[in-house]
Amino acid sequence: FSTENWKRPPFEIMGLMKILENVIDTELEELNKNGVQLRHIGQLERLKPIIRNKVLYAIDKTKHNDRLILNVAFNYGGRDEIVHAVKRVIADNIPPDEITADLLSHYMYTADCPDPDLIIRTSGEFRTSNFLIWQAAYAEYYITPTYWPDFDKAEYYKALQTFSRRDRRYGGRNE
Questions:
Q1: CA gyration radius for the chain?
Q2: Cβ neighbours of residue 113 closer than 8 Å, sequence gap 6 or more
Q3: CA 146, CA 151: separation in Å to the nearest integer?
Q4: Cβ proximity of 142 and 121 under 8 Å
Q5: Which residues, listed in sequence order, are joined to residue 38 by a DSSP beta bridge?
Q6: Euclidean distance between the first and the last CA atom of the chain, given in angstroms as a whole number
Q7: For the purposes of burial, counting CB atoms within 10 Å of the CB of 42, is it exposed (0-12), middle (13-18) or buried (19 or more)?
Q8: Measured over all CA atoms, what is the biggest interatomic distance in the chain, rounded to whole angstroms?
Q9: What integer pLDDT is reported at residue 171 of this predicted model?
Q10: CA dihedral defined by 135, 138, 140, 143, rounded to 10 degrees?
Q11: What is the pLDDT of residue 175?
């Protein structure tokens, strides 16, 4: 759910909120059992208290798990994240000449996670949709016409195979 999704009709917003609520209710035990630490990236403040509390409960319940980190981007927008990070830098009174890309990265929601290597874009859309725009600077994109609900293990392996054949240059050139 992106920060822009608030522009959708109320019944769609309610439906998306219900999906988050249901996923937490049905998957939390499984996540915990498999050692998955749940994290949230985005702004929780705008969510209804019942949903916000469920998210916070799930985060707390899985905080000691260390096999895998699952970042759930709910009420998240890349531009919003950058604005939020800049406001925190200002609040910390950091002098402008000390502000670097590395420093700003430490103020992002994903500060303690590596930047993504691969971003899978479902539904055939050729746009970033304001998703991890800071972190995705050198990510490789895999675009599939498959919609998210139908994205299965076979499609995932196809994405990984395609990614494994990429020549990652990080802005340089291989000669």
A1: 18
A2: 69, 71
A3: 6
A4: yes
A5: 70
A6: 42
A7: buried
A8: 56
A9: 76
A10: 60
A11: 66
pLDDT in tens, 4-38: 999 999 999 999 899 889 989 999 999 999 999 99
Structure tokens at 28: 């939390």
**Which residue type, as a one-letter code, is found at position 88?**
R
Who wins on pLDDT, 148 or 63? 63
The model's confidence at residue 172, banded by pLDDT at 50, 70 and 90, is: confident
- Only one residue has tokens 């208290």, namely 49
Q: Does the pLDDT of residue 156 top 70, yes or no?
A: yes
Other C-beta atoms closer than 10 Å to the C-beta of 123 total: 13
Spell out a b/e string for 89-118, using b for 16 or more CB atoms within 10 Å of the CB, else e: beeeeeeeeeeeeeebeebbbbeeeeebee
Task: Tell me the whole-structure pTM to 2 decimals.
Answer: 0.83
**The token pair that represents 14 in the structure block:** 């309610």
- Extract the runs of DSSP E, i.e. beta strands, from the chain: 36-41, 68-73, 118-121, 140-143
Amino acid 42 reads G
Q: Where are the alpha helices (DSSP H) in 92-148?
A: 101-105
